[in-house]
Predict the structure.
Amino acid sequence: MPRIQVKELFPVPDLLSMRRVLCVQAHPDDGEIGAGATVARLVQAGARVVYLTVTDGGVGTQDPSLEPGELVRIRRREGEEAALLLGVTGMIWLDFPDGGNLQLSAVREKIIEAVRRVRPDLLMVMDPWLPYEAHSDHRTSGLAAAEAVLLSGYPHACPQHLAEGLAPHAPQAVAFYATSRPNTFIDVTDTWALKLAALKKHESQFSPDNLEMVGAYLTAKAREHAVGRGFELAEAFKVLLPLQLHLFEDAWQC
Ligand SMILES: [Zn+2]
């Protein structure tokens, strides 16, 4: 029996054609790590990109003398400065407590609300199905965002938003960053320096040594993603249509 040519039946949506983008991250800095150079490229192509950060980032330190409240303030400033560098024009902070106790339905409801406000063509988020992903904030945020892509267009899902004047809205596609099954490789050679500069803004997260190590790994990975594609550096994504997010057996090979 011949294998279904699923990419011919369902062409992968063109990420760079999207004009309104909602980029969801569990913590300040996830978006830059996974997709920062593509965010900058989208902005340069004329897209409006809004960031949504699910948690307050208040657990992200190994320094016991740094109070969580102070850390939250520092991380918000770092996140805003990094996003500004990339050209992001809107920031939504959900401020759920950082540290692995996110409730899926609560996060999903807030992301659906944001989708109905921002009305993105594309939602970007970390891949919740990344093998060995041990951080449940990443898994829960990714899953909540994927579910929001499915549900935001349905008026009877979270109908309280309609009473607040928000109309249903379904994004055209979702792009998962930090994925092990990429189907899209974006040429980010020209915006790579911006991504690294944005990462550098997260001083509370990266010591200079750490930043050098992470930067070297990400750059090597971007070089690997670009092999044979005619450019030097790429960020990789799994881009799916909403219809491929439920009861779709071939989503893994799309
Ligand atoms: Zn994170």
User: Anything to note?
Assistant: Helices lie at 6-9, 30-44, 68-86, 104-118, 136-151, 160-163, 192-200, 208-226. The two ends are 19 Å apart (CA to CA).
